[in-house]
TrEMBL record:
<dbReference type="InterPro" id="IPR043429">
    <property type="entry name" value="ArtM/GltK/GlnP/TcyL/YhdX-like"/>
</dbReference>
<dbReference type="GO" id="GO:0022857">
    <property type="term" value="F:transmembrane transporter activity"/>
</dbReference>
<dbReference type="GO" id="GO:0043190">
    <property type="term" value="C:ATP-binding cassette (ABC) transporter complex"/>
</dbReference>
<dbReference type="InterPro" id="IPR035906">
    <property type="entry name" value="MetI-like_sf"/>
</dbReference>
<comment type="similarity">
    <text>Belongs to the binding-protein-dependent transport system permease family. HisMQ subfamily.</text>
</comment>
<feature type="transmembrane region" description="Helical">
    <location>
        <begin position="210"/>
        <end position="238"/>
    </location>
</feature>
<feature type="domain" description="ABC transmembrane type-1">
    <location>
        <begin position="175"/>
        <end position="364"/>
    </location>
</feature>
<feature type="transmembrane region" description="Helical">
    <location>
        <begin position="115"/>
        <end position="133"/>
    </location>
</feature>
<protein>
    <submittedName>
        <fullName>Amino acid ABC transporter permease</fullName>
    </submittedName>
</protein>
<feature type="transmembrane region" description="Helical">
    <location>
        <begin position="171"/>
        <end position="198"/>
    </location>
</feature>
<dbReference type="InterPro" id="IPR000515">
    <property type="entry name" value="MetI-like"/>
</dbReference>
<dbReference type="Pfam" id="PF00528">
    <property type="entry name" value="BPD_transp_1"/>
</dbReference>
<feature type="transmembrane region" description="Helical">
    <location>
        <begin position="350"/>
        <end position="368"/>
    </location>
</feature>
<keyword id="KW-0813">Transport</keyword>
<feature type="transmembrane region" description="Helical">
    <location>
        <begin position="140"/>
        <end position="159"/>
    </location>
</feature>
<feature type="transmembrane region" description="Helical">
    <location>
        <begin position="250"/>
        <end position="273"/>
    </location>
</feature>
<dbReference type="GO" id="GO:0006865">
    <property type="term" value="P:amino acid transport"/>
</dbReference>
Length: 384
């Protein structure tokens, strides 16, 4: 066989080449995602028409014709052309938000003492940021400070300790109460949910029956019912003369409700773990708690990160229901100020609700983005 007849065998791998120009860039993305089929083209045109119609009006109402400053409602009836117009003629009344902003954040907390919740907020941020950074050192110490030490310091600062003036919890309100309720509910629900999920899968009938009963009863009633029970019925089971603070009752109700839902989320992650992981842990001679802590639970939690964060987001939004038991969170304090005669107008309620909705969205979106970051960091192996 001559050299020319010998088959050619490549000894090196070809270098990767870039995709064709038509498959890259914004034009390719638009063609692939918005104009791929006739149906996509029609839907894209309809969506663009809707955006072209709605967005200019929203921008005009929210920003261009909006009233940004003023001492009372009369300024919210003034258009950009000047002159007093009927209610609803002007844009958004951001002057109302500016005038009530401190109350939306702190509720009816005394003006001279609002430095105390401000310090608690700063401490919370300083401890939370390193807790959320995977590469930050001393996670154990950070967790102890955030979940054990900070709540004690926060209570004494907010309620009154170290010689400070006592501020009763009925005066608390606004975003401060929303954050307190959601933080405690989230911090308590995760460990309690893990224990309930493990109890529901326990081989001990009594433990399993108690956990199943608790989870199904709590999940079978709305949060409003749980809050009413915590607010009205809980004092009935206490000795005569004992009283439980209303905020503490709300904290207990939110924590109990969230724990039941978290238990089912964790149980779903446990059921997704292959049987071989349990058998491999048993073959190593690990005990039940060693196996659960080192092998099973880390994998289960990693699998259900989206569901865990979804429960956290639901908890954050559900805190607005505490209004029915006489507490005023962010949404409650915003609605309470609608009755202020100095700011009563047709645009005041919608402006206040937009402000409250934006604050809720900001926190929920942040939790959602962090969830995506943690999924990528842990590399669950699933398509995102």
């Amino acid at each position: 066989m001559s050299v020319a007849d010998k088959p050619f065998v490549r000894t090196s791998i070809l270098a990767a080449e870039p995709p064709p120009p038509g498959e890259r860039g914004a034009v390719a993305w638009i063609r692939r995602n918005l104009l791929a089929t006739p149906k996509d083209v029609i839907l894209t045109i309809l969506a663009l028409a809707l955006i072209a119609w709605a967005v200019p009006q929203l921008v005009n109402w929210l920003f261009i014709q909006a009233v940004w400053s003023g001492p009372d409602r009369t300024f919210c009836a003034t258009t950009i052309q000047g002159g007093i117009q009927p209610d609803g003629w002007s844009g958004a009344c951001w002057a109302f938000i500016s005038a009530k902003y401190d109350q939306f954040i702190f509720g009816r907390y005394p003006l001279g003492e609002r430095w105390r919740p401000a310090i608690v907020g700063i401490l919370f941020i300083l401890l939370l940021i390193p807790m959320l950074i995977p590469s930050a050192p001393r996670k154990g110490l950070n967790a102890i400070l955030l979940f054990a030490v900070l709540p004690v310091i926060a209570f004494w600062l907010l309620h009154g300790g170290f010689g400070l003036e006592v501020v009763e919890t009925p005066l608390w309100g606004g975003l401060m109460v929303t954050l307190v309720l959601s933080f405690v509910g989230i911090a308590v629900s995760l460990p309690c949910g893990i224990l309930l999920a493990l109890g529901r899968r326990s081989k001990m009938p009594v433990i399993r029956m108690l956990c199943v009963t608790f989870i199904e009863v709590i999940r079978g009633v709305p949060l409003i019912t749980v809050l009413f029970m915590a607010s009205v019925m809980l004092p009935l089971f206490l000795p005569t003369g004992w009283n439980v603070d209303k905020l503490l009752r709300a904290l207990i109700g939110v924590s109990i409700f969230t724990s039941a839902y978290m238990a089912e989320v964790i149980r779903g992650g446990l059921q997704a773990i292959p049987k071989g992981q349990f058998e491999g842990a048993d073959s190593l001679g690990l005990g039940y708690w060693q196996k659960t802590r080192l092998i099973i639970m880390p994998q289960a939690i990693k699998l259900v990160i989206p569901s865990i964060v979804n429960t956290f987001i639901g908890t954050f939004k559900d805190t607005s229901l505490v209004t029915i038991i006489g507490m005023f969170d962010l949404l409650g304090i915003v609605k309470l100020n609608f009755s202020d005669a100095n700011w009563a107008s047709s645009v005041t309620p919608i402006t206040g609700l937009i402000f409250a909705g934006f604050i809720f969205w900001l926190f929920c979106f942040g939790m959602s983005r962090y969830s995506g970051f943690m999924e990528r960091h842990l590399d669950t192996g699933h398509k995102r």
